[in-house]
Amino acid sequence: MTYPYHTAYIGMGSNLADPIGQLKDAIHALTTLHGCELIACSSLYASKPMGPQDQPDYVNAVACLKTELKPLTLLKELQQIEQIQGRQRNGQRWGPRTLDLDILLIDQEQINTPELQVPHYGMQSREFVLYPLQEIAPDLQLPCGKLLSELVANCPANGLTAIVAADQVWQPAR
Questions:
Q1: Which residues are catalytic?
Q2: CA atoms within 13 A on the CB side of 150
Q3: Is the model's pLDDT at 11 over the cut of 80?
Q4: Whole-number Å distance between alpha carbons of 68 and 34
């Protein structure tokens, strides 16, 4: 990879069609993205659905990428991974899905376009984002100046449970 690069944190979630397998496949797909290098991946966590409760529980994780890609190009690459893994966008917010990949942060950038909002608009209050993110970036400070550790301290876990250890999900190349 040539430099300069950006550090991007990607939130991942699935609750359909073998969610653990979906996330493992997504993590593998992240390792193959041109202009990107997977740096870290959290454990997999089980969480209750955020929206309608008449759907299966979710499996969530957060990955860290070094990337040369511009934010909108990275977004398009992530959406392609979602589509390959069966994601269907039916307009239902917070509904069940095979795979959801969200750009949470890119460096200390703040982006607000119709296609992309970074930091991700809901990340500061979602346990299924904050806890896995803290696992891989405990000293992180958000662009607004808030420390991740403070956000986690003020965010109840709501039954969030680690179900697959990080080293069982992905191993960095040696």
A1: 87, 97, 100, 102
A2: 6
A3: yes
A4: 9
DSSP for 108-167, please give it: T--EE-SS-EES-TTGGG-HHHHHHHHHH-TT-B-TTS-BHHHHHHTS--TT-EEEE-GG
How many helices and strands (H and E) does the chain possess? 4, 8
What are 57-81's pLDDT values in tens digits?
999 999 999 999 999 999 999 999 9
> Can you read off the two tokens belonging to residue 134?
């803290």
Indicate the residue type of 125.
S
Q: Can you list the domains of the chain with their CATH numbers? A: 6-168 (3.30.70.560)
Average pLDDT over residues 17-33: 97
Task: Tell me which DSSP letter residue 94 carries.
Answer: T
